[in-house]
Amino acid sequence: MCMTSKKLVVVGQGYVGLPLAMRAVDVGWRVVGVDVDESRVARLAAARSYVEDIPDRQLVAALGSGRYEPTSDYARAAAFDVAVITVPTPLREGAPDLSYIVGAARSLAPLVRPGVTVILESTTYPGTTEELFAPLLTEGSGLHPGIDFHLGYSPERIDPGNRVWNLVNTPKVVSGVHEDSLAAVSAFYDTVVERTVPVGSTRTAELTKLLENTFRHVNIALVNELAMFAHELGVDVWEAIDAASTKPFGYLRFTPGPGVGGHCLPIDPSYLSWRVRRSLGRSFRFVELANDINDHMPDHVVRRVTEMLNTRRRSVAGSRILLLGLAYKKNTGDARESPATRVATLLADLGAHVRAADPHVDAARLPPRVTLVEVDAGELAAADLVVLLVDHDAFDRDQVARHACAVLDTRHWLPTHDRGRRPVAAGGGHPLIPAQVARHDELAFAVEPL
Ligand SMILES: NC(=O)c1ccc[n+]([C@@H]2O[C@H](COP(=O)([O-])OP(=O)(O)OC[C@H]3O[C@@H](n4cnc5c(N)ncnc54)[C@H](O)[C@@H]3O)[C@@H](O)[C@H]2O)c1
């Protein structure tokens, strides 16, 4: 494919669409990035990225190449060769909200011409491409997918913040409504990624994405539930996980935490269970159980906070609690559906003075009644309890260990904590703490796992 003459439109310039647009510019496409959010478009035009994996200098280069145009005007996408849709697919009252896909399809349809290729990337339930997306394109263009133009689905596997696996080196599952469509979709992705994995139908490709995320969701729920029981049984779940992870076959490592967040795990499995219930009248019990466990992890964190304060003869009400991390995952600023927000809200409801530090998250995403602070010695020492919720690389383990009085470590982040042990009386010491460090508490430094 000679790309310098080819025009790609990427609909949605978010965590998924922007990296795709940048990569396509890199390999020679002329790219129009359409987004209905005018403030995002203005930021892109000013080369100010809001996606961590895309540095400003990459935007500067893309804009400077003359082959990248961010816009809110669909007319700028006219005469495209390939269109990729990367709009949100949230839940509304527990059910899939496909209104963004519907909106994008209606706006794009009048621009669809014979011979073009249209690809849906948004995560959704099996059947969406052919039952919902295709009819809208036909309605607005008078053309039929698989006959007049190519149509396919390709799930996105982007993992924000992952330094090893990115858009280019992660294999990309591709599908089409017919063989020719599959060939056209594969030909497009062959220009931007190292390896494509063709599957036989758009439904299979849609299900593949939901299988991947449901698998993660269920396994995280498994270790989360295990972590709660192990704590009560007085067994170190982390040591057991480390030991189990030495098995070279038949085991995959998942780790407990304060809950799941982001745009994928708390949402995607529910697309699948909704579809199963709607089409088959059955419940997808694994998904429902995993939702139940993962949704309640913030309550478990608050219970553990209460226990730890209790040991120190304090109540949650009136205690000063410092939360480390507000994002839903390590090294990102994405706080969508973050369990940290729920923890903060629950603690504030109980009357705690909640303070939070996160070098990545925008202050505008701060939950109500929470004070945003920088982590320093004074802030750590003044907290009755520090709760490590996100193990960002920017946090300093030694600083936390040196100055905090007590830490609830939900991510097994502090390296030498007293596994499973209760706080010890002053003078008992901690391997990371110099004995002479004075603390404002009658108990010595305590670190406890989730
Ligand atoms: N973020 C991830 O890590 C990730 C990974 C894999 C898959 N996905 C899936 O990819 C899809 C997009 O996710 P995201 O994280 O990039 O979302 P996002 O919210 O970061 O970006 C989506 C963008 O689409 C824009 N938009 C909405 N309606 C539009 C319309 N009609 N026309 C043009 N633009 C429109 C929004 O303004 C927004 O900027 C979702 O289905 C998500 O589940 C996300």
Automatic annotation (TrEMBL):
GO terms for molecular function: NAD binding; oxidoreductase activity, acting on the CH-CH group of donors, NAD or NADP as acceptor; oxidoreductase activity, acting on the CH-OH group of donors, NAD or NADP as acceptor. It comes from the Bacteria. Belongs to the UDP-glucose/GDP-mannose dehydrogenase family. Keywords: NAD, Oxidoreductase. It comes from Frankia casuarinae (strain DSM 45818 / CECT 9043 / HFP020203 / CcI3). One of its GO terms (biological process) is polysaccharide biosynthetic process. Residues 322-416 form the UDP-glucose/GDP-mannose dehydrogenase C-terminal domain. This is UDP-glucose/GDP-mannose dehydrogenase.
